[in-house]
Amino acid sequence: MTTTTTTDTLLSVRDLHVTFPSEAGPVHAVRGVDWDVRPGEVLGIVGESGSGKSVSSLAVMGLLPDRAHVSGSIRLRDRELIGLSDREMSRIRGRRIAIVFQDPMSALTPVYTVGDQVAEAVRAHDRHIGRAAAGCRAVELLDLVGIPNPTSAARAFPHEFSGGMRQRVVIAIAIASDPDLIIADEPTTALDVTVQAQVLEVLATARQATGAGIVLITHDLGVVAGFADRLLVMYAGRAVETGDVETVYQRPRMPYTLGLLGAIPRLGDRHRPLVPIPGQPPSLVGLPPGCPFAPRCPVVIDACRTEEPPLVPVDDPAHVDDPAHRAACIRVADLAPTASTESTMDVAERIYHSDDPVTAPTAPRHRRREKVLEVSGLVRHYPVTTGVVFRRTVGTVQAVDGISFDIAEHETLGLVGESGCGKTTTLMQILELAAPQAGSVTLFGQDVATADKATRRRLRRDIQVVFQDPIASLDPRMPISDIIAEPLRLYGASTEQARARVAELLRLVGMSPEHANRYPAEFSGGQRQRVGIARALALEPKLVVLDEPVSALDVSVQAGVLNLLADLRARLDLSYLFVSHDLSVIQHVADRVAVMYLGRIVEIGSSDDVLTHAAHPYTRALLSAVPIPDPVAERQRERIVLVGDRPNPAGPPAGCRFHTRCFVFAGLDEQHRRPCLDIDPALTLRPGAEPGDHRIACHYPQVKTGA
Amino acid sequence: MTLVESAHPVVTRSRGRLVLRRLSRNRLAILGVLVIVILYLAAFTYTWYWPWSYQVSDPNAYLSPPTGTHVFGTDKDGFDMYAQVMRGLQKSLTIGLLVAVLSTGTAAIVGSVAGYFRGISDRALMWLVDLLLTLPNFLIIAIISPAFHGRTWLLFVLLLAAFSWMITARIVRGMTLSLKEQDYVRAARLMGVPPLRVITRHILPQMSSLLIADATINVGSAILTETSLSYFGFGVQPPDVSLGTLIAGGTTSAVTFPWLFFIPGGLLVLTVLAVNLVGDGLRDALDPNSARGRRREQRAFRRHLRSGR
Amino acid sequence: MITFLLRRLVNYVVLCVVVVFLTYLLASLTFDPISLLLHHDPPPPRSVINDKIHQLHLDQPIPQRFFEWFGGAIHGDFGNDVFGDPVNQQVWTRALTSLRLFGLGTLIGVVFGVLVGVVGAIRQYRVTDYVATFVSFVLIAMPVFVLGTLLKFAAIKINQVTGSDFLVFEGEVTPGFTGSFAADLGDRLRHLILPTLAIALGLVAYYSRYQRNAMLDVLGSDFLRTARAKGLRRRQALYRHGLRTALIPMATLFAYGFGTLIVGGPFTEHIFDWHGMGEWLITGINSQDANLTTTVTLFVAVCVLFSGLLADLAYAALDPRVRI
Prior knowledge:
Chain A is of the alpha/beta class and 707 residues long. Helix content of chain A is 31%, strand content 21%. In chain A, the strands form four sheets. An eight-stranded mixed sheet of chain A has the order 6-7-8-3-9-10-12-11. Chain A has an eight-stranded mixed sheet with strand order 18-19-20-15-21-22-24-23, with helices on both faces. Chain A has a four-stranded antiparallel sheet with strand order 2-1-4-5, covered by helices on one side. In chain A, strand 4 (69-76) and strand 5 form a beta hairpin. In chain A, helix 4 (131-144) crosses helix 6 and helix 6 (163-174) packs parallel to helix 7 (193-210). Chain A is globular. Chain B is mostly helical. Chain B is elongated and about 75 Å long.
């Protein structure tokens, strides 16, 4: 960023420090950050959890809790905001600076209607407007952010809306008083991928409607690539690199930025290895002197550990087009591409010279291999109850409605879908080893419905699970040695045997056996996930079910866990059922991919087929929604943005379940729409494909080559 | 929101020590602990240091106001009030503690079983809770009281415990329901760990902090119920004394012989107040999100800032 | 919604019947009215005792006695007490007496409890909050019989100092008082002050703690932050969004609170010499009277369940998420 505060700077943050008290000592969440936003400009602030990005935005809004200690300077035009009273700040909040928070599910007051809450924002800064006029304005705003039937929607309560719709309402509130600056704090993180794209479009509309500057805070380098003009990368409470978005993506000069870019799974690049950054972000309590990234840095030298490098302009004779490019690294010069053809990814690979890069599995499907899991016509319906006080059953959620797939030995099946598509229900149904409501589950040749108690016990040994949330999946009151030993003890291992096996398992997942007596709280997310994997492997299972194993992890640790999983699979001859909402992750691990929508599988086939010849409109929309961490490519590519939300699984649409959101359907004439409305499409082989088992449930499959 | 996450570094201290540290910063709770310890010691050792017994009357002092010989005065039969009050305190404290332990234990078992197994056992147990909550425990025990006239006071303890576990059981059930959905419990279940072992190894330990805090609060309410019953003669029976019977004896003469009412009444309020302060402090210390715990952190933090970084 | 209320009502009626049966059973098993007779000096002749046994149906098995009593109770006839007088003579006046006390006490308790709690939360860690917190803690630790006696003591002292007799603490009305309707009402109100205070103060303390904590819980919520981000000041946001949301859990608490209130009844009535249901319960137990005790129990059960129903309705009214 420019250090000279030009007159057209909207907001200027200088040397911002935020400190929180904690039991362990003061947490220095933000440690001297500078940034500027000009009117109409989009500044992207990128960082992992704990980098201080959200804290700095709350500091701008004056919404940090009282216990936070804020110092430095935040100037809005010519007005200093730090030190203003609540009354003075309340005149700025909403009118000059507005904010969109991460979690739309809890951002609205549950007891007031949506219209009232938007109208309140209108009236907050315009006392002369009447109640009725504010209500009308609220309806206009709801219309602007793309809420269908805004007049009746204004009378609805927040709980009647989906997450995406609520986020639109929050954006409507943010633009109600025509602010000069909108801070969007991870606005799409809590949303489904197909809804993320919609919300980003609404944000762009809001920007046009108000001409406001935008600060977009995110952990997702893909989201900012297409949206931001300039970028600020934060690490451990400091800005470590900043510049125009193209410069930062194409010529990053800070090893951390480089590592982040290298660690993102990229669509279409599936045979390119992921580059993990070793270690994890530091604790912000009592940081040692020196560069906070030094312990993880591949190019660290002794000088890095003595003093924290300042953010200085990158002296790049080859590129003088971006004088604002700055980086906080003393080895800036060594990170330049050696040749003009060397891409960011190449540099990342060179710098991090990863020894065990994950390579996507390419094993062809062996039809003759034994099947470890066969699911056929599986059905799981739930009764829906409504009301807390007056509970009653109002319908049936068709969570899983007749799905079939199988997994062969040493094979990985990726199950992809958004929230509510039934993928977790499918997993649980398989793992519970109970007879399904309809259809069958066959594990290692044994139908679970007919298995007796002893057989079930034997089956349980061979199928294990790794959960999504590494915090919730480990009992916080047990040392990790006990956690990993639990399945062993259950199957009769002695204390001695268990201890030896725990040490072995810890080594297997890349952790030190000396840590066996520590508690889960002492480990970072990535390490805990490794403990979870070790527990799953304790009984030497044949099939491991992975429920979103990396989606709760920071990008920089995600790659390491994915690499570990690939490595274990090869070494231990495992089969995986890998569930994820993220196609870019799936493509790095899966041999075969199944795409789920509303309790059905809509497309299934080998990874190559599904990812490169996606034929179902939903799969294509999913692929299109995966952000590309490259500003140029991201802006140029054609996006498929689905309309609306996923229908309620308690009452799925008749005919093809996808037709309400389908862009192909939307382009058809009346006559051609008939099949979609009337006939439920069955999974059929993709027409025109070379022999294989790529199946699609669509009346009008797209045979065009995708992504 | 990432703010909370970022503000919480990797915890490297044991939880017990952390809780103790947070508790020790709560001055009122510490005061409560001190008061309880002092009352306990005073009540259970009074025969060692006090010349009067609760059973022996002083023929030279009927209805004597507090004096040098009888610091708390005497009652109409010449019994020393200090000895009486200490004896009553013994009973009240013991009963309160026993009842709290028993009822919290029952609540933990009933609540976790109902919440974990759901289905028919849940329905039955919760119906029982509803039924017992329909009638205040005071009423039931009062009705049964004629049956234990002349029997051991331990029976009274059992009755008190049997009718005061319901609300805690509901809370435990609610927590079990949410803990059951936690991935680590799910992991244990899917691994094939038997249900009772899941409850004892994974669910109840997780609630231990809540149970400790709740047991403490239950001590207070058990003392209150005990004294209430004894007040009407439905609880502790003469010749034994509890704070309730003493207060009942002093009520009618509160204006003329105030020490007979104010001394046992004041001690009762002090005891329950102290117990509640400790319970409240424990709850705050155990709850990482408690605003008050934070408030204290903040004070320490401000001191830290002042002392210069 | 109506059907759900009905279903709940049916459940409550079943609970009531079971409770009444159990009470009758327990009372019949433990009570021994004849023993009281035997303590008379000189002991009554055998024939008198046998007459009494017959009169109280003690020669019949307990279930038969229960169904006889219950059959009457359904039609509003609660049988005779141990002295042979019909329970119905007093039941309605006593019920009204108690309800007047409890109703007013609850109303004052809830309203002031919420107010004090809100003020405590908004002025958190100021002097007002500390004072309110301390007083609440003391009141919560104070059983009704201590509080009632203290109030009575204070009233006597105040009357002495001011030389008036405005504060009365005996009975519901001045015995033999006659006057216009207004004067009568005034006299009754004067008698209500102290007992109502005795009941309400405890409730204020109890509710205010919960309201304050519920408000503070809401304080950290995302939606309150959204409200402040709109440009509402902290206090405005707390009143408009925090208070309204924090009232929801209070609705459930209301049902529990009523139980504690009922327990306070016997003490308050005893101390202030009111002839309500609470006092009657004590009489019933002391005279070992199963019919009377069960009648009072029925009254208590109906009160508790009715307040539970009210709490459900209040919950549905406050929280749009549970409405249908």
